[in-house]
Amino acid sequence: MLTGARLRENATVSDFSTDLQATKLFSAALTGLSPHTNYSYRVGDGTHWSETRSFSTADPNAGEFKFIVFGDSQSPASNYSLWQENIHNAYKANPDAKFVVNVGDLVDEGQSGTHWNSWFAAGAGVIDTIPAMPVVGNHETYGDSKSTKPAYWSAQFRLPQNGPVGLKNQVYSYDYGNVHIAVLDSQASEEKQYGDILAPQKAWLDADLSRSKATWKIVFFHKSPYDVKRNRTNEDVKKAFCPIMERHHVDLVFNGHDHGVALSYPMKNGAIVDKPSRGTVYFIVGRSGSKTYSDLVKKEWTSFFYNPLDQPNRLLVDVAGPKLTIKTVKMDGTVVDTFYIDKTKDVDSDAR
User: Fold this and answer.
1) Which of 180, 162, 234, 179 is nearest to 171 (CA)?
2) How far apart are CA 51 and CA 34, in angstroms?
């Protein structure tokens, strides 16, 4: 129920069987809302109701706003406490953030009801107040010691349905103010038994970026083309996505998978370039759960590197017209690094 207009929307019900039990999932699409407006809502059956929550619709003309980016939150099934502390600390410190993004591997076992129940419970109080715009990772495909389609993901999330046929809800794009964001699925090896998922995404991404006139273009996907993990690369993703993103001058690409923080110089065709306008910056965002890697190494394309072994971290992205600033922040609020791109001066803070 919404304040003001007091709209009521009947939910769509779907049956979903998990490894725990058969359950029902409810979803509703609210239309006719005013932009840049505060609403309150609750869900229920007419007799039993949830707590009342609030949210704000997007300002399509916003030139200044913040959003928060989290790395892999995967954790042991019974203990997503670090993810819980990290997301709540982040939102408490930035109550004006407009949305949050997880760059994949939200859970450690994607076909596990226990993992998903723990993840959603940990984020309660934040993800029911501001939009959660997640990215599918390789662990979302894991279950019974094999890879499969991310069935639990597809059942539980209702994301923009503008992606390519066969990949809707895994691939999508949206705008907030002067920023255009595209979200991709990099799990070609995990999903190969179901066909080539990279080819349709290439065509879709090319068309999607061609249509955008936004000041900033940002792309999210899980596996980084410019990795920092020893003896592991993602050449299939690099070959598929990088030429398209760089041709359309995507400003920033955010990735996960390596559980470290690694910021690249502006890159084009595999080489470092001297100005942001001539290339794309790739940012591996760290980890927001309990899993760490001790074998991360700074690569030749890396301008800033940090392995968050001591505690999880997040990124705070602050868009201010032609300037975008990213702070790498530990779970306890300690700022590790500050990076910016200034389009007016065509410089970034890590320029050689």
Assistant:
1) 162
2) 23
Q: Please list the rounded mean pLDDT of every run of 10 residues in the chain (352 residues).
A: 67 92 91 93 92 93 96 94 98 98 97 95 96 97 83 95 96 97 96 94 98 98 95 94 98 98 97 96 98 95 97 98 98 98 94 58
**Please, which residues have CB within 8 angstroms of residue 163's CB and are 6 or more apart in sequence?**
169, 170, 171, 172, 173, 204
265-274: long-range contacts, CB 8 A cutoff, minimum separation 24? 265/301, 265/302, 265/303, 265/350, 265/352, 266/348, 267/226, 267/242, 267/301, 269/243, 270/242, 272/301, 272/352, 274/351, 274/352
Supply the pLDDT for residue 350: 80
Bridge partner residues of 344 (DSSP): none
CA separation for the pair 352, 303 (Å, rounded): 9
Query: What are the residues whose beta carbons fall under 8 Å from the beta carbon of 149, sequence distance 6 or more?
Result: 141, 191, 194
Matching residue, tokens 């760290």: 286
Q: Going by CATH, does the domain composed of 60-348 fall within 3.60.21.10?
A: yes
Give the E-state strand segments of 96-184 in sequence order.
100-102, 142-143, 146-147, 172-176, 179-183
- Of 146, 190, 183, which Cα lies nearest the Cα of 162? 183
- For residues 223 and 255, give the distance between their C-alpha atoms in angstroms, rounded to a whole number: 6
Where along the chain do its domains lie? 1-57, 60-348
Question: What is the token pair recorded at 217?
Answer: 């273009």
Whole-number pLDDT of residue 2? 42
Q: Which of 12, 34, 33 is nearest to 24 (CA)?
A: 12
Contact 51, 42 (CB under 8 A): yes
What are the residues whose beta carbons fall under 8 Å from the beta carbon of 291, sequence distance 6 or more?
Answer: 72, 74, 75, 108, 259
